[in-house]
Amino acid sequence: MSDAQPYDLVLTGDIVLSDRIVAGGYVAVRGETIAAIGEGAPPPAKQVADHAGRLVMPGLVDGHMHTSSSTGWPGIEGATASAAAGGVTTVCDMPYDVPDPVTSAALFRDKVEHVHRLSHVDMALYGTIRKDGGLDEIAAIAEAGASAFKVSTYEYDAHRFPRIDHPTMLAAFAEIATTGLMAAVHNEDQELVVKLTEAAKAAGNTSPIWHCRTRPPITETMADLEIFEMALETGAHVHIAHSSLARGFELAQIYRGQGAKCSGEACIQYLTMTEEDIVRLQGFGKCNPPFRSAAEVERMWGAMRAGIVSYVSTDHAPWPRPRKEYAGDIFAVGAGLTGMQSFAPLMYTLLVERGLPASVMARMCSEEPARFHGLNPRKGGIRLGADADFCILETGDFVFDERLIVDREDARWSPWHGRAMKARVAATWLRGAQIWDGAEVKAKPGTGRFVPRQHRKSALDS
Q1: How far is the CA of 275 from the CAs of 278, 285, 382, in angstroms?
Q2: What is the predicted pLDDT for the residue at 247?
Q3: Confidence check: pLDDT of 462 > 90
Q4: Share of the chain above pLDDT 70, in %
Q5: Cα angle value 370/314/120 (rounded, 5°)
Q6: What is the share, in percent, of the chain residues with pLDDT greater than 90?
Q7: Tell me, what's the pLDDT at 458?
Q8: Residue 338: pLDDT above 60?
Q9: Is the domain 59-379 a CATH 3.40.50.300 member?
Q10: Distance separating alpha carbons of residues 239 and 259, to the nearest angstrom
Q11: Is the overall model pTM greater than 0.90, yes or no?
Q12: Mean pLDDT value across the chain
């Protein structure tokens, strides 16, 4: 098609790139991809979306979330509708599904079929391994298009979310290394957490703060050291799936200096929530790892500013409300937070509160997660040839309301309910089509597509 012909779509506004903001700019789209980026008078187009005065962000890429870990396949529909409403155009979904985790290429392909039937946004998928191994499936899962693998040093469920012992994990890392994919790890030391929890229960210490007390920082750093030593031994790219501690990123940096491929992500809750918040929120503030001190939140921002955090994710886990209600025993409550629909407004708000530009969000919540999951250059940025995925932010003074979450009724809860926000998601575009108009999800189930990993190059090799 000639450049002289009108574009299919032009969006105008302040275009947020990963290194700068183009005020009064435009993005032109042909078909499903970005065909031109500029400033000044926009070119002719069949459709013009005037977002003047708003931020035209790349669609967010959530590198860590759960659609089916509590409710099975139906969870895909609700969680991805919430993603559309939150400006998240691509999600990287964890493999710990109900009833069976994604431990084989056959299970992986079955999940892809459900994605194509149910999802409102595009989806990349993690694979995992069985507790007893099943390492012969790793190559086939990678070949099926997995964006990464996930394993755990802590056992949440013996079948669905097991602890992988050291010999099996070491062998798995060696096999994953041959695929070029990242091995993300839930990083909590099993023995310490179990013993501390048993002692707390025996003493009758079951109030919310004891979730934090039974998972102190050393339970993370002990696990970090184990997995990074295995990274050094095997050559695998080993990634902390959620560090609540700046020290986790510092350890990854030390091991990179020794020749290992090590990295880690920060879930957004660890950039804002503190131990005081679990006392306030009770079960609705329980997640693993737990919230830390206010001083640790400041250290986390220091790691962000130092450039040693790989990307920011949500670990969105929409437990049914009854599983989050505290009734005197915090250990009986499900661990995980909702965060999809609040992701974009909250991240922008945190940046504003710290005097940082929106380009940080474009880099840490779009470009870098796409790069680590091998979805670039198709996903993760406003660049020529990329999918025309956009999150439109209207800035101002807003309050996040959990009642407006677009998901099943029992998932309409949020730890950020009532939180003052400096932006709202005014529109979301997926591959050149509007899927959220600020009030209603325009996409239908099945609009979303499975996005296979585009290449086998590790983000730490680039």
Answers
A1: 6, 9, 37
A2: 98
A3: no
A4: 99
A5: 70
A6: 97
A7: 87
A8: yes
A9: no
A10: 14
A11: yes
A12: 97
Amino acid at 355: G
Our measurement of the distance from residue 291's CA atom to the centroid of its chain's CA atoms, rounded to an integer in Å, reads: 17
pLDDT score of 1? 34
Structure tokens at 242: 């959620």
Tokens 């529109």 belong to 427
What does the pLDDT look like over 431-447, one tens digit per residue?
999 999 999 999 999 99
Q: Which residue has the tokens 């309910």?
A: 417
CA distance 87 to 85: 6
Q: What is the pLDDT of residue 3?
A: 56
Q: Which H, E and C letters describe the chain, residue by residue?
A: CCCCCCEEEEEEEEEECCCCEEEEEEEEEECCEEEEEEECCCCCEEEEEEEEEEEEEECEEEEEECCCCCCCCHHHHHHHHHHHHCCEEEEEECCCCCCCCCCCHHHHHHHHHHHHHHCCCEEEEEECCECCECHHHHHHHHHCCCCEEEEECCCCECCCECCCCHHHHHHHHHHHHCCCCEEEEECCCHHHHHHHHHHHHHCCCCCCHHHHHCCCHHHHHHHHHHHHHHHHHHCCEEEECCCCCHHHHHHHHHHHHCCCEEEECEEHHHHCCEHHHHHHHHHHHCCCCCCECHHHHHHHHHHHHHCCCCCEECCECCCCHHHHCCCCCHHHCCCCECCCCCHHHHHHHHHHHCCCCHHHHHHHHHHHHHHHCCCCCCCCCCCCCCECCEEEEEEEEEECCHHHCCCCHHHCCCCCCCCEEEEEEEEEEECCEEEECCCCECCCCCCCCECCCCCCCCHHHC
Q: Encode pLDDT of 144-195 as tens digits.
A: 999 999 999 999 999 999 999 999 999 999 999 999 999 999 999 999 999 9
Nearest of 234, 242, 251, 319 to residue 285 by alpha carbon? 319
